[in-house]
Design brief:
This protein has helices spanning 5-11, 139-164, 169-175, 179-198, 206-223, 243-267, 272-294, 313-330, 348-351, 354-373, 401-411, 421-425, 436-458, 463-485, 503-526, 536-539, 542-552, 568-591, and strands at 35-42, 48-54, 63-68, 73-80, 85-91, 96-103, 110-117, 124-132. By secondary structure, the chain is an alpha+beta fold. It has three domains: 12-132, Immunoglobulin-like (Sandwich), CATH 2.60.40; 142-166; 214-296 and 310-335 and 343-371 and 378-591, no CATH class. A four-stranded mixed β-sheet has the order 4-1-7-8, with no helix packed on it. A four-stranded antiparallel β-sheet has the order 3-2-5-6, with no helix packed on it. It is globular.
Length: 598
């Protein structure tokens, strides 16, 4: 999910020149997160130019950083510390590159680069010195991880100690002296345990609610800025960061939930017409929530059609739900067939749904055809890049290729204006990560979730078979994604790209989804080692938490204005605090048995 614009502008910082000085640098500018200070000292008798590019920016043009005057002059610049930078010092007088290096600089560090001619050689050289050591930017994250680990340990150990405290005769004598404790130690809980064992096992999958809640909790955290850490946000273009994972997981869960829910409704005698009414109503509500509320906030000012975004997260989730629900309504096996021998028995959960698979193949063929073969004006056919300064600046207005062109043709300016590639690639075209072409692969992702649901139904009460088939699907999808991407970020046939929802991205996320759902199914539904807390609470009230945090999450007490000099300590605490509040609200609603359903 895309973070708010004001968070992007403050956290996803450009590699920029903060100041350029003739003469000696006398005062250091205040550095913010993901920034370091470079001071270039020119001891040559000629002027030099300094250029840079980010190694994460695919085939990007070098950008001008500073000009350093000759004869013991210096100039300073603030640069980004997110990715490795390649810096090049050039002389126009000699028409040559004097020196070049690649380095990842530390946050808050002050560095000097001395450009001079060494005594041993006549050619100029660049020597690095550290004026101020970089901050330990990961210390807040480490502290937060330790605190969460301790809280988790206490949560696990405390009930165990409570249950075992009366097993020792000595402790039992102490804690059971009074009549008020006798029932507790001598049989009340045992009786309750006996009654609990006689209860029927709940049909609802805890692993599915836990998976949904885990995805939602992670989504809320990254929407609060992820503590200002770049790897918690979205990737600039190709590749995967943490925020890129959550929406595909949601889509996968939608597909699984549709299969399980529709099977239950069909067993209760719900007609096809009633199903159509239900899915149509839910789709309309989801899309209207996204269009009228999530894409607009009162803090944005008066509502205006000129900037109102038409695509969106809930719009895509709603449309994907509608598509997979239609598949399940019209091409579904109402009952699992009898166990008669057929050659296709090992893959019956695939073969029996061949009409659905045929539709998926046609949809994917459509995506591949439009993406790779559709002519786009002034752009190469099959272009998948970010435009801007990428690809050596040859295609600055081709952001997203066919996907971007279709969205700009359909929506004009009513789409996302701050794509994740804007900062790094200096792109000027709007691009919507929830656009039309990517929705095709969103349906494919939902269909993978449907396959997980079919496996659970076909192999009910045979947990080994369920887990093995989850693993098989994960391996198949993972290998397919590796082949398409060539196990590289930018060099594959079809790179892993969340903005485009590329085929390799969908397969990669399908692999992760099968593995995560299988792992949670094993520890919650099979072994019962974990009840899914605390993720199961937001997982059972996902619509309420998502809409609530989108509308109210940027107001007190969920968040507040940070200081002008932002730091990871404050932003990480704020993100964890806001996320914890929504988990707490979901828990209280769970206790009150309030679940917002559409």
């Amino acid at each position: 999910m895309e973070p708010r614009t004001f968070l992007q502008s403050s956290l996803a910082l450009l590699i920029l020149v903060s100041s350029s000085y003739g003469g000696h640098f006398k005062s250091n500018p205040a550095l913010r997160m993901d920034q370091a200070l470079l001071t270039f000292h020119n001891q040559l008798t000629e002027e030099v130019q300094v250029f840079y590019t980010s190694d994460y920016c695919d085939k990007c043009l070098y950008q001008h950083l500073v000009t350093v005057e000759p004869s013991i002059n210096n100039a300073s610049a603030v640069i980004s510390t997110k990715f490795t930078l390649t810096v090049r010092v050039e002389s126009e007088t000699r028409n040559a590159t004097l020196c070049s290096w690649s380095q990842t600089y530390g946050e808050g560090g002050h560095y000097s680069i001395w450009i001079r001619t060494s005594e041993a050689a006549s050619s100029p050289s660049c020597k690095h010195t550290v004026n101020k050591e970089a901050n330990n930017e990961y210390l807040p994250l480490l502290v937060a991880a330790l605190v969460l680990a301790i809280l988790t340990l206490l949560y696990v150990v405390a009930p165990y100690i409570y249950r075992r405290r009366c097993t020792s005769n000595f402790i039992k004598t102490i804690c059971c002296q009074g009549p008020q404790y006798s029932d507790e130690c001598d049989g009340t809980h045992a009786g309750e345990a006996e009654n609990n064992t006689t209860k029927t096992k709940p049909s609802r999958l805890r692993s599915l609610d836990t998976f949904r809640g885990f995805s939602l909790t992670l989504m809320v955290f990254v929407n609060y800025g992820g503590g200002g850490y770049w790897f918690f946000l979205h990737a600039p273009w190709n590749g995967l960061f943490v925020a890129d994972l959550v929406m595909p997981w949601f889509v996968f869960i939608i597909g699984t939930s549709v299969v399980l829910a529709f099977r239950s409704m069909q067993r209760r005698g719900v007609t096809r017409l009633q199903l159509l009414r239900k899915i149509t109503w839910r789709t309309v509500v989801l899309m209207m929530l996204g269009f009228c509320f999530i894409n607009y906030s009162p803090r944005d000012g008066p509502l205006s059609w000129s900037w109102l975004r038409i695509p969106g997260v809930l719009q895509r989730l709603g449309f994907t739900y509608f598509a997979v629900s239609l598949l399940q309504t019209f091409w579904n096996q109402s009952e699992v067939p009898l166990k008669t021998y057929h050659w296709w028995n090992p893959v019956q959960d695939v073969v029996l749904y061949w009409p659905q698979w045929l539709i998926m193949v046609l949809l994917e063929t459509l995506w591949l055809g439009l993406t790779l073969l559709m002519p786009v004006p002034n752009c190469p056919t099959g272009y998948l890049g970010a435009g801007g300064i990428g690809d050596y600046g040859l295609y600055p207005n081709c952001t997203g290729g066919a996907a971007g062109y279709i969205d700009r043709w359909m929506f004009g300016d009513n789409m996302y204006r701050y794509p994740t590639c804007k900062e790094l690639y200096d792109s000027t075209q709007p691009f919507d990560p929830e656009g039309v072409l990517g929705t095709i692969n969103s349906i494919v992702m939902g269909f993978m979730g449907m396959q997980a649901g079919k496996i659970i139904i076909f192999y009910k009460n045979r947990n080994v078979q369920i887990l093995c088939r989850f693993l098989v699907w994960a391996v198949i999808l993972g290998i397919s994604a590796a082949i398409l991407s060539k196990c590289t970020r930018d060099g594959g046939f079809i790179p892993v790209n969340k903005n485009l929802w590329s085929l390799s991205f969908v397969m990669c996320m399908g692999c992760f989804s099968f593995l995560l759902l299988g792992g949670m199914y094993f520890v919650t539904d099979v072994k019962g080692w974990w009840g899914g807390q605390p993720f199961i609470y937001p997982g059972m009230n996902s619509i309420f938490v998502y809409v609530g945090h989108s509308l109210l999450g940027f107001y007190f007490p969920f968040s507040w204005e940070t200081s002008s000099q932002e730091n990871h300590w404050e932003l990480l605490f704020q993100g964890l605090w806001g996320t914890s509040l929504w988990v707490l609200i979901a828990y209280l609603l769970y206790r009150k048995k309030f679940f917002l359903k559409i």
